[in-house]
Amino acid sequence: MHDQYSPQEIEKNAQRFWEERNCFQATEDASKEKFYCLSMFPYPSGYLHMGHVRNYTLSDVIARYQRMLGKNVMQPMGWDAFGLPAENAAIQHKIPPAEWTYKNTHYMRNQFQQLGFGFDWSRELITCDPNYYRWEQWFFLKLYEKGLVYKKNAEVNWDPVDQTVLANEQVVNGRGWRSGALVERREIPQWFLKITEYADQLLNDLDKLDQWPEQVKTMQRNWIGRSEGAEVLFSIADSDEALSIFTTRPDTLFGVTYIALAPQHPLARKAAEHNPALQQFLDACRNIKVAEADLATLEKKGIQTNLMARHPITNDMIPIWVANFVLMEYGTGAIMAVPAHDQRDFEFAKQYNLPIKQVITPSDDTTADLTQNAFLQHGKLMHSAQFNDLDSKAGGKAIIDYLIAEQKGKSKINFRLRDWSISRQRYWGAPIPIVNCANCGAVAEKNLPVVLPEDVNFTGVTSPLKTTPSFYQTTCPNCGEPAERETDTFDTFFESSWYYARFACKKLDTAMLDSRANYWAPVDQYIGGIEHAVMHLLYARFVHKLMRDEGLLNSDEPFTRLLTQGMVLNQGIKMSKSKGNTVDPGPLIEMYGADTVRLFTIFAAPPEQNLEWSDTGIEGAHRFLKRLWTLAFEHRELIKKENVLKNTAASINWEKSDSKQRDILRQVYDILEQAKYDYERQQFNTVVSGCMKLFNLLTKIPEATDADSNIKPYILHKGLSILLRLLAPIAPHMTHQLWNDLGYDGLIINAPWPKASATPLKTDLMELVVQINGKLRSRIQAPTDAERDVIEKLALNDAKVQHAVMDKIIKKIITVPGKLVNIVTEEK
């Protein structure tokens, strides 16, 4: 054992040891409880920065901890390889996207290995591998057979110079990011998955996810957007047509003063045929990128058509407008505008001098001020004929009943969620396995995989698939006549929506999944950024249910527990390649070692909070590891001797021991208990704090006079074995080496979670940890046979506790007999 801490040598040796013995290779074992730990797999962008390091360190800490609990742990790794960044890089570096991608995965794999992550590399997958996406193509065709896939025209961002479809992020101030041309809104055929068929399941099953952050579940509920209301028919004047409009506020029906259509609404287009001003407005709207998130700040513009609609109850004539803030994708693409009771409608009405008619009054008979804002609350109906004085709920129901009786409306549940457009007019993606035949229409490919050609000249102007006859020229699988392959590729979310299941049976070449997927799924712990809270997680939940219904899986949800880690900030800004403020872990590993880098990312902040990069913080983490190494080196012979003698607590005469020695051992066990609690609640930064406290205790063990000479060696031996195991998931290389050098049994990666020995702790009094909202605030002593109410009174009477709960409301007290009291409070 060297006297100096040499992380580079230690870490290379440990990594070589793990690799040679396949220490992290997982196999199915029915005799053990399984634990599937997974981080959202990375895009192979070229190198890792500290944001990546934090994410995957958290995953590795959880996986290693669960292994210590005796579970059968799988932690795989792969690459989300398709997508727009590779195309952009290919244009910039003048190399095919495939070459750039494979080069990056090789480099990043080495970085992962340098950090000592316990990944099962035998399961490594990359989504651009035909052996992976062939099953995605197969599954797509299964869904096509079941009617869950369809094709229809949809609007896209079209660059008329580059002749290509642009993603929203490639549109900058209404212009193409490369050409600078004004982007057009163009309708082209797109493939869709019927996610709306599963809207209710996706919404209701959120209640099953009790180990997901509430914030994420709320975001998904809002995105699915279930709304109860009515679909109302407004007949078009001088026409046999009727306009169907969905509203969540049927109680305000008598307050409609205008109707607004989306610029893409068929009625708007028809009206524009003989109205040049309206056509000009529609053309202007084609060049505006409008997403729901933009509506609040969008300058609201509109134009009146020459059309009028008839109110379904009063028969009043209502003008029909076209407005840029109405989305064709929501409801029916038309709204009944009630300016008195909707702020957006109010602002538009003010701008164009349209009537504002109040039909809801406050329930407390006060007056609603409509001079500056709409009155949005529910209340009592007024100016609503026979429905006057009903409250909003009863009035809305009565109006719906009337509409149903008159065949002018019906109750309706609507969803904000739209069907998932899964086709992209780009090259670097999995080909959609469809042949377009002039005689037979869209026909499923029979020979899978449809392989994406990788050796192409990619300029970014058009997809190489459209200019490669060897790819798109084929024959129809039905009639045998010449036909063309689909040149669209899958949305990359499709690949990332099922990869977690494929990890379970990566080398399977006869099916998409087999029984091993049911052994491992659902993922027990999933880790990733909050930015994926909606789209990726929603699509993965949807595809999981599709695979379940196809008989491929037997569970309802893909991820049991979710951790959304905070960002790593540098100078107050999110660390990212695009912002040029990343910190490369490579030089830090060379200088301090991977364990220091890992320890810093864990200690600097709780997992769910943002972490501010700090050079002094990483130096402090390194100093702690050096001090721990020195402590172990200085006591190496004593620890080795204890390992040979195997002294136990029962063999020591504790009656002769110094009370300070016993107190240190009790504190060691207190830290152990707190660390277990903190690991379970994933507050790993406080685990590190506990390790530092434990270290300090081991440097202060007094030499007792007239006492059993085995006591100090026992405490050092026991305390250090606990400290190394608490730290092992976080700093695995150093603890691996020290465990071996000090002569502890076996390998530390196979060592079980430590247990306290009760022998030296027997006393008439017991010491309990007192926490407030899970944080250690004090310690109390109570009789070993004390009842729960006595313990709680002692805790509440403690001076430190009284100070901490001052000006707070105590909601409840949780007492774990013999261990702790946790007082849960909230602000007054």
Q: Looking at the structure, what is the overall shape?
A: globular
Largest sheet: 7 strands, mixed
- Round the mean pLDDT to the nearest integer and report it: 92
Share in β-strands: 15-25%
What class, by secondary structure content? alpha+beta
The quaternary structure here is single chain
Low-confidence stretches: none
Helix content: 25-40%
Number of strands: 34
Gap between N and C termini: 56 Å
| SS summary, helix count | 26
Return Rg in Å.
Answer: 33 Å
Tags for this entry?
single chain; 828 residues; alpha+beta; 7-stranded mixed beta sheet; 4-stranded parallel beta sheet; 34 strands
Give the secondary structure arrangement, pairings included.
Blueprint: H1 7-20, E1 34-39, H2 50-68, E2 72-74, E3 78-79, H3 84-93, H4 97-114, E4 125-126, H5 130-145, E5 149-159, E6 164-166, E7 171-172, E8 175-176, E9 184-193, H6 199-204, H7 214-224, E10 226-236, E11 242-247, E12 258-261, H8 266-272, H9 276-286, E13 302-310, E14 317-323, E15 334-337, H10 343-351, E16 360-361, E17 380-381, H11 392-405, E18 409-415, E19 420-421, E20 423-424, E21 434-437, E22 441-444, H12 469-472, E23 473-475, E24 482-485, E25 489-490, H13 492-496, H14 499-502, H15 515-520, E26 523-529, H16 535-549, E27 559-565, E28 568-570, E29 573-574, H17 585-592, H18 594-603, E30 611-612, H19 615-634, H20 636-645, H21 659-680, H22 684-698, H23 711-727, H24 732-741, E31 765-772, E32 775-783, H25 788-797, H26 799-804, E33 808-816, E34 820-827
Parallel strand pairs: 1-2, 1-26, 3-4, 12-14, 26-27, 28-30, 31-34
Antiparallel strand pairs: 5-6, 5-9, 7-8, 9-19, 10-11, 10-13, 10-18, 12-15, 13-14, 16-17, 20-25, 21-22, 21-24, 23-24, 28-29, 31-32, 33-34
